[in-house]
Specification:
By secondary structure, the chain is α/β, with parallel strands linked by helices. Helix content is 59%, strand content 14%. The protein contains 13 helices and 9 strands. The strands form 3 sheets. A 5-stranded mixed beta sheet has the order 3-2-1-4-5. A two-stranded antiparallel sheet has the order 6-9. A hairpin with a 4-residue loop joins β2 and β3. α5 packs across α8, α8 packs antiparallel against α10 and α10 packs across α11. The chain is globular and about 75 Å long. The termini are far apart.
Length: 355
């Protein structure tokens, strides 16, 4: 009799329902997708799903629940599973869609998607998802709300400009638009106050943010966004993984002599992190010699300013990670001090050799 090595429940999440498929992998690496059902995307549906899987699955193995990150609709289910001690993995949608293209399925339905997610979970060694810390989740909600407010204000300001450029501007329209801008300014101010209250209420977090702000170009808001979007670097193991999560990793397509695409960043990651790094990179290039040299070196080599600025963004994000993990403040003159230390050590060796 075949031995079961792994069991996975693949979930295709929609606004109102969860389409699930249960699969298992045997010791000969064959895969069996043996059960399928639909549940409501609410607490009653979650309870029914856990009762159903308890009757189906083996008692010897823990079932891994694998789902896509579908906006906000997967969050309640993921939190519920985590609170009930279940193993959860959340996968970026582009990974699943790319995986589905490798299969022979030509018809895409909710059921076929859940089957593909289950098969993906069985074939891959996936990291376990951990519930974000409450404080980082609150900060993430607020920073994303602020981003929406700022984006809306830009739109309204453009509308004001367009209205003023009319041959005969409508004064009532301008009044309403300006009132909306005042409201958005007030809301942004309130959000910043809420962020300050949360940060100041946690001494450790406040200290970490001040330490991160020692990096040239990184302000308090940027530091908060980075920590909120990464859950305090909870699952980040190295700098490479961080840049990939942010979508700042470089992708290149090359094959033989006929196919040679230009290297560019993947942008398949957290757009909030990428957006947060843009303005700090401009400041760092202008006011920090270390980042300025990186920028000039890349511009002189490729002649593309945006490519150089992206490299600085990536370096800044990595620096935030290093500062957070090392618990040390950023030193502008670190490279100079390191070089001076190396020269002193060389002089000491020379002195010892001559004596």
């Amino acid at each position: 009799m075949k031995k079961v090595l792994k069991e996975v429940l693949g979930v295709d999440v929609a606004q109102k329902e969860l389409v699930v498929t249960v699969g298992r992998m045997f010791d000969d690496l064959s895969i069996d997708l043996y059960a399928h059902k639909v549940f409501k995307n609410n607490e009653a549906g979650f309870m029914a799903l856990l009762d159903w899987i308890k009757k189906l699955a083996s008692n010897e193995l823990k079932v891994r629940f694998v789902m896509e990150a579908t906006g906000i609709y997967h969050q309640k289910f993921a939190f519920y599973l985590y609170d009930h001690g279940r193993e959860v993995t959340i996968v970026l949608p582009n990974k699943i869609s790319n995986y589905i293209r490798t299969l022979e399925n030509k018809t895409i339905t909710d059921k076929s998607c859940s089957e593909a997610i289950a098969q993906f979970g069985l074939e891959r060694n996936l990291d376990q998802w951990h519930r974000p810390k409450k404080i980082f989740h609150m900060l993430q909600q607020l920073t994303r709300e602020r981003d929406q407010v700022v984006s809306e204000r830009v739109i309204v300001k453009n509308q004001v400009h367009a209205e003023k450029s009319e041959v005969e501007p409508n004064e009532r329209s301008l009044q309403r638009l300006n009132e909306r801008i005042l409201l958005l300014n007030k809301q942004e101010k309130e959000i910043k106050a809420d962020l300050g209250m949360i940060v100041n209420g946690d001494a450790n977090l406040n200290t970490e943010i001040k330490r991160i702000c020692s990096i040239t170009g990184i302000g308090k808001l940027t530091a908060i966004i980075v920590l909120a979007e990464t859950n305090g670097f909870e699952l980040v193991r190295n700098k490479k993984q961080l840049t990939s999560y942010a979508g700042l990793d470089v992708k290149e397509k090359q094959s033989g002599t006929s196919v040679k695409g230009k290297p560019k960043i993947s942008k398949k990651g957290n757009r909030h992190l990428r957006k947060a790094m843009y303005l700090p990179a401009l400041v760092a290039v202008k006011h920090d010699k270390n980042f300025g040299e990186i920028y000039l070196r890349i511009v002189s080599r490729h002649g593309i300013k945006m490519k150089a600025l992206v490299a600085v963004q990536r370096k800044l994000l990595e620096m935030v990670y290093v500062i957070y993990k090392s618990k040390q403040e950023y030193q502008k003159e670190y490279s100079v001090l390191k070089e001076s230390s190396a020269l002193n050590l060389k002089d000491q060796h020379a002195t010892l050799a001559s004596s």
